[in-house]
Design a protein that fits this description.
It contains four helices and no strands. The protein is mainly α and 131 residues long. Helix 1 runs antiparallel to helix 2. The radius of gyration is 15 Å and the shape is elongated. The structure holds fe (ii) ion (2 copies). One fe (ii) ion binds next to helix 3 and helix 4.
């Protein structure tokens, strides 16, 4: 397990909490495959991760846009930075099939990013959306 339930701060918006919990579970399953160096499973789950993360980010961006949230651009740029990293590591995975690199990205970068993004950007946005 990479990310514990208690690592991810609860925000005031229940839709966001649901998106975060689904993503946490998926990332943990992906991480287990990476640790086990299960190439086929990593191949499959990496694609699912890309789709799910995009759905998570896009849902939040739509909610923020509909709610007229002033911090949308800053929030979106933080999403875009992670979108770019995931794309980059997925492209490298497709060529190199190196679980070590993916593991290090998840442990040293993605985990910290998710915990900190939820506790700052998502927390702020959810307070303004007021649902
Ligand atoms: Fe989020
Ligand atoms: Fe977000």
């Amino acid at each position: 397990m990479l990310i514990l339930e208690t690592d991810v701060r609860k925000v005031t918006d229940d839709v966001m909490n649901m998106l975060h919990e689904d993503e946490r579970e998926l990332i943990n399953a992906f991480y287990d495959a990476v640790v086990a160096k299960d190439i086929d499973k990593i191949d499959t789950l990496f694609k699912v991760v890309l789709v799910e993360v995009e759905a998570h980010f896009k849902s939040e961006e739509d909610m923020m846009e509909q709610g007229g949230y002033a911090g949308l651009a800053v929030h979106k740029s933080d999403h875009d930075a992670m979108r770019a990293k995931l794309e980059k590591f997925h492209k490298r995975w497709e060529v190199l099939k190196g679980p070590k690199e993916v593991r290090s990205f998840l442990e040293k970068d993605f985990k910290k990013w998710m915990i900190s993004h939820v506790a700052t950007r998502d927390k702020d946005a959810s307070q303004h959306l007021g649902s």
